[in-house]
Every structure is written in C-alpha cells, then in structure tokens.
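Problem 3 from the worked examples.
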Amino acid sequence: MAATKPTFAWYELMTTDTAAAAAFYSSVIGWTPKDVGMPGMPYTTFNVGEVGIAGMLVLPEEASAMGQPPSWIGYIHVDNCDAYAEKVVEAGGKILKPATDVPGMLRFVVVSDPQGAAFVLFTSNPAMASPPNRPTPPTPGTVGWHELYTTDLEAGFSFYSNLLGWEKASDMDMGPMGIYRIYSDGDPAKAMGAGGMMNKDPNIPSPYWGFYFQVDAVGAAIERVKAGGGNIINGPMQVPGNSWIAQGIDPQGAMFSIVSFVK
C-alpha cells in the first residue's frame, strides 16, 4: 500500500471583515467559528464539532494596499518546511514570506510555484497532538477537493510531483478547456484522487489553488450563498464520481467552491 505523501492539511482565509466572513461561512458551510487568538494576534478557526478544519485572519493592510484581494490559501504538511522551501526556490518558485514559528504549534513558510500559485509549507510541532476522530470527506465542513489553475499544466504538475511526490492518477479531456489532470498523494482513502490541475481560463488573473468545501446539498448551499450576499459564478454542475459542484465568491471577494453528492 502506498504511503501518503505531503498533502494539504489546513486552509486559511485572509479577509477584510472577519465577523461578516464568519457569519457567511457558518451559514453556507455549517462551520462553527471559534476565537483562538492571542493579544495582538486575532485568529478564528472554523470547526466541525470540536475539530478545526480551517482558519481566518484579517488581510494585512500592506497586502490590501498592494492589491491583494481576500483569498483562501492552503497549507501542505511536510517534515521540514525549511528544506522544502529551498527546493521550491531551486525549482523556480519563490519564498513570499520567510519561515516563521508559531510557538508550540508549527513552523511555516509561504511560497509560490514557478507559475505563481501561492501555498504554505508547514511542519507541526511534535508535541502538538492531532485531534482524535478528525472528520473526513464527505462529512459536511471538510475539504473534499483541491484544484490548481495554472498557466502550464505539464510544468505545474512536474513541480509538485518532484517536490512532493504526487503522482498522476488520470487525465480527462475537457475539450476546449484542455486536459484536467487528477493527482494522487498516495492516500488509499481518496479513491478519486486528492485533487486536480488544469490550465486556467485567460480571464482568471493569475494562477491559484482553489478548495471545495463539502456541504449537505449544493442546491441548498447555493441559496444560502445568495442569501448571505455572495455570488455563484459557476454551477451547479455534475462531475465524474456523481458529485455536484458550484463555484462562488464570498461577500468580501474571496473565491471558494462547494461540493456534495446531493444536488
């Protein structure tokens, strides 16, 4: 049985209005927000039960001033984030934020791949216990799929394959949209793969990783998106594996996606 390779293990929203975003995602996804910040360092987790699935913080003013919109970013767990960051640079990627320690919890570094999609590499503190009975997809509130929109599918896949050991599971011909590549991180529980990669539409400003949040039913979640002031930009549509998906923008401008076996 293949061993699980480095994979996404945390997700973080940087936004301009954390209170409004907390209310929106609590309604749409079903998360319970929890304030876990420290003095001078506000931070909110989005929980399923008592287990944190994602986090949220205020978009830094300097980032907003440089034109960075509210957005989600994914954290990939590795055994040594500093060593992996060096490999990112050697492969043509960039370090966007130097390695930083969160005392007692983790060490992380923000990087981008050679095509410009940002992600975080992190190493957890060995003393930090993993929560028991962590929920898995398709439990509502978990993350069911990861999707890279890039400018060069083959170069992008090669980067992640060489860096993290991810493997091609299959290719799907999407016609005018090109090839959709499904990748595996070796986890046998992810029968359909861990995520997909494709060349982005020219209208998408820059490469990025997108994340699909599991919901009870896509149709009902779409109505909650609209009621909460968000917008649906694509879907609902059925995809291989009998899942239904939709893609949207939250009221502050961050893109997100939802997925469910129920329309």
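Problem 4, a separate protein:
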Amino acid sequence: MGAVTELSARSLAHRTETAAGFHRCWYPVCRSNDLDAGRPVGRDILGTRVVVYRASTGKAVVHSAFCPHLGADLSGGEIVGDLLRCPYHHWSFGADGRCAEIASGDKIPPRAQVFNYPTAEAWGLVWMFNGESAEVDPPVLPDANPGEIVFAAYERGERRGHGWVAVSNGVDFQHLRTLHHLPAVAMPEQLDVDAGGIAYKIESPYFLQHGRISGTSTFAQHLRIGGVDSFMMFTGAPIESGHSNGFYVVGVPREDAARLAETKAMAERLMEEDRPVLEAIHFRRGLLTASDRHMARYFKYVEEFPCFLPPD
C-alpha cells in the first residue's frame, strides 16, 4: 500500500463525511498569465488534483491530474504537439481527455481517459466548472465591459475557512459598518435570486453598488462613489474542505487607469480586515435578526445548491 499523505487523508475524510462533494459552480484555477505555452500546471482543488495547460489552439484545458494507467501526476509531464504526455510511461491525452497514444504501442483501453472539466477564461483567470457540463455562465463583473475597463487579476493564496462562508460577506451589509467602518452603507430592498447566483443594486445620486454572487465561490461588485467607478471580484476555490485558495480582480474605467493601484489597495484592505475573522470563525447559522434577512436568504440558497464529487 502506498503512503497516505496528510492531504490525501484529509481529502478522504472529506469525501467520507460529505459524499455529495462540492458545489456545482465555477471555480478559479489559476491566472491566465500563469499558463506558459507547452508547460502544464498542477493545482490541488476540490479534494483532488487537476492539471491545466494551454492547448495549441490557445484554449485553456483542465483535466483531472492522475493518469488512468498507474495514477502518475500528469502535471509533471509535458505538452508534445497537441497532446499532454504523462511523465511515467508516456501515455498521451488530447484536449478532450481521451488517451490518443501509448508509447509501448499497446492497444488503447476504451476507458483510458481523464475527466475533462468545462473551462473558461474571464477577467484574467482560468475557471473550471465542477460538473460534467457547465450549466451557467462564468462569473461576471457587474456593468463591466472588458474592452472598456482596465483590470488585473491576483492570486491571494491559501487560507483557512470555507469559501462559501466568505462569499456571504457580499450580502452582509452590517459588517461593512462594524468591521470595515463604512458608515454610509445602505441595504437593498430585495435580492434577485436565480439558478446561477444572487444579485442586487443600491443606487442614489451619489452612490451605486451593484453586487452579484455567482455560485457559492465568487462575489463581484461595481461601486460608484461620488461619480468615481471601480470594480472588484473576490473569488476562490476549496483545496479541500475548510481550506481554500483565493483570487481577486480589480478594475477601473479605461480613462481612469491611474486609479487601478488605488482600487487594488482598497480591495486588499477589505480582505485583510476580513481575514482574521474568517480564518478563526467556527461558523454556524446561529441567532439571526431582521437585519440579517439577506444573509438568511443566502444561507438558504447555499443549503439548496447542487453538488458534484470530482473524480480522481
């Protein structure tokens, strides 16, 4: 029997405890800039591991990382032509996940394939959908046209906690005042809930906040304060239950490009103020009050959200 690492043991425990798996939505895997032509990248995500690379067509591809032959990590291999080649016995796989070539010349077994995740690129990030097919579009920045704003994507890194709990901040209007000291915070009358997310808009002559939660992994918003626009996206993916990898995107209108660093600093301040609370929280849906009604709706949405267990 092979050695059981701490990660694999904890992943197994997660799979045993929550057999339904992880929420069936889009998750960020890496930044688009992290993909060099011809070099696969491995990422631990959703209790398993994936390999991501850029095909000769330019499209990002995400597969389960373990070769169906003996389980070697395909991210240690290389791209040869249009194929991802395993580092161990040189089984090679196409962008559809099917084995296309075996170095020994043996007949390719009918089931020789790796799981192929639906993949997209948006806002400087490579996204994978946790399921056989993508049922909704990738996350968006509300009101933003990629050709009309300047934006940049960053990897925040690993952190403790459940990402879907952090995403509740998007509808936790109380904490904007109490934790972030933003006193002039309004609350929307209602949330618009659909199969792919939750949205709201608060607007006055001096202030606009258009927010959207996509799946359970991403909160994005368009802010306008005193006529000045900025865009922020906070997102992440579980590495395993209770441990995530975070990313964020910031943007400003193209004519205000000089303000991008200022918007980045604001986003980082908000994340740093949240971090110690979210990493130490022993989350439970406790005693909620009338002011928590939008969070209560979000928690109900999470409870009803479909799940999928990624294959190894």
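Solution to problem 4. The longest strand covers residues 228-240. The domain at 23-129 is CATH 2.102.10.10 (Rieske Iron-sulfur Protein).
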